[in-house]
Specification:
- The structure is a single chain.
- This protein is an alpha/beta fold.
- The chain is about 30% helix and about 10% strand.
- The chain has 14 helices and 13 strands.
- A seven-stranded mixed β-sheet has the order 6-8-2-9-12-5-13, sandwiched between helices. Strands 1-7 form a two-stranded parallel sheet.
- Helix 1 packs antiparallel against helix 7 and helix 10 runs parallel beside helix 11.
């Protein structure tokens, strides 16, 4: 359900007080999920103090032009963007990643990761390995949907429209990162850009000058409850009114409000200047998606950092399907496409890592970057690469991950793992074991099978 507050005293009406925080309030309208949140709070030993930010590079990034450039291979296989030396001796990245290369001593690059299927979907986030539920929903099933102390959602999905209303809606035609499988809609990620199972366009038109009056808000909740009692959708809301109120006024929504950030920090993250809209060739059907990515990616990473600071446990950032570099009617080829995608990615992700370091959060936040597949080892005649499930790029950083490590090897043509493959199940287990205390969850008889199956798969054998 969506509960948004509109300033009826302003002609512009665009402050949209707590638009995102109101989504948290909507989530609290699901009594069962909230009750489980309280239960989780009484079992803190099941959780670590870690947070995960999963940057889903939708479309399928090339393993070669990102973290495994293969410059010793023949032309047509080797990186079309060249390579850049990193801080790790003997390790290079693709040529559009100079800033990430300077931070390579803080990350783990996995060169033997494969998703197994060369088709567009959202499989690292939602797949059989996650019981067809959003990976963050598995975490929320143990942690509860909202933090009991603040009301902060524990699982959030961020699309470009989360930070820029001019961008296209969330792209879900080739997989829904907000799916919840058998867990149910109560565990769907919060989506501050609108849409999703938790939102039913419910609005309170309260003047801003009256919003701080506790009784006004509660009376409006009463009115809405009466209106919706007929279909039972607000059954049980009375028991959580106070929690709902504290969610809205307790500071949750401010975490979603980038206007509260230091303008210098916003400029530091901003990726828009790196790829101007007028510089993107309009012959590509994905022209606007490229532009949206450049406008939004840096601010999405800033928003992700803010949510981590406020207690959100799992944040998915999705790039809205723009890493598909076929050199066809829709997509640019690899060299051009990496200018559109690689430069903003390099800037946004490196700024995020540096900001975490500055704030003392590097050991608290695990950053994961990958897509649903990789790209064909050989360029096509137009300079693009096709779908490839046998090898995919994967980068991990923070929260205890080994630093400055390249794990696994690929074949000379970057076609498949040369060492033991790392599978989606290994990645999922690594992420969940970062967020949860596996042995304690094993002892918890109420832990659902969806969680335990994923948690107890073998993790990536790092270190």
């Amino acid at each position: 359900m969506m509960l948004s507050f509109v300033d009826t005293n302003r002609r512009t009406g665009r402050r949209e007080f707590l638009r995102a925080g109101s989504l948290a309030l909507g989530g609290l309208g699901l009594p069962l999920a909230f009750q489980r949140s309280l239960q989780a709070a009484s079992m803190p030993s099941l959780l670590t103090d870690k947070t995960v930010v999963f940057v889903f590079m939708h479309g399928g990034p090339s393993q070669i032009e990102t973290f495994d450039p293969k410059m010793g291979a023949p032309i047509g296989i080797s990186s079309a963007t060249g390579e850049v030396s990193t801080k790790v001796p003997g390790v290079t990245f693709g040529g559009t990643f100079p800033r990430l290369a300077s931070l390579a001593d803080q990350m783990t690059i996995v060169r033997s990761f494969r998703t197994g299927r060369g088709n567009h979907d959202v499989k690292p986030i939602v797949s059989a390995e996650t019981s067809n539920a959003n990976l963050g929903a598995l975490y929320a099933r143990i942690a509860g949907q909202n933090r009991s102390d603040s009301g902060m959602p524990t699982n959030v999905s961020l699309f470009p429209r989360s930070v820029d209303d001019s961008t296209m809606p969330a792209f879900k035609k080739l997989g829904d990162v907000q799916a919840t499988g058998a867990l149910g809609a109560g565990y769907a990620p919060f989506n501050p850009s609108g849409g999703g199972n938790l939102q039913a366009d419910m609005k309170l038109n309260i003047p801003m000058t009256r919003l701080d009056h506790r009784r006004v808000l509660l009376s409006e909740l009463d009115r809405l409850q009466r209106r919706m009692e007929k279909d039972g959708s607000w059954e049980g809301l009375n028991s959580i009114k106070e929690q709902a109120f504290s969610t809205v006024l307790g500071g949750v929504a401010s975490a979603f409000d980038l206007s509260e950030e230091d303008p210098a920090t916003i400029r530091r993250y901003d990726t828009a200047p790196l790829v101007r809209t007028e510089e993107i060739d309009k012959k590509w059907n994905n022209h606007k998606r490229y532009a949206d990515n450049a406008k939004s990616l840096g601010k999405l990473m800033l928003l992700a950092r803010r949510l981590c600071e406020r207690g959100c446990g799992f944040v998915t950032v999705t790039t809205n399907f723009v890493w598909d570099m076929h050199a066809d009617a829709n997509n640019a080829g690899v060299e051009e496409g990496m200018r559109y995608m690689g430069l903003p990615f390099d800037h946004a992700i490196s700024t995020f890592l540096e900001d975490l370091q500055d704030r003392g959060l590097s050991e608290k936040v695990l950053l994961v970057c990958c897509g649903e597949m990789g790209r064909t080892p050989k360029l096509n005649s137009l300079g693009g690469r096709g779908h490839w499930g046998a090898l995919s790029p994967l980068m991990l950083a923070g929260a205890g991950m080994p630093k400055g490590q390249v794990f696994g090897q690929s074949t000379r043509d970057a076609a498949k793992p040369l060492s033991e493959p790392v599978e989606i199940s290994n990645l999922v287990s690594t992420i969940l074991n970062t967020l949860m205390d596996g042995p304690q969850v094993r002892l918890e008889t109420g832990a659902p099978k969806e969680v335990t199956d994923a948690l107890f798969a073998p993790p990536i054998p790092l270190g």
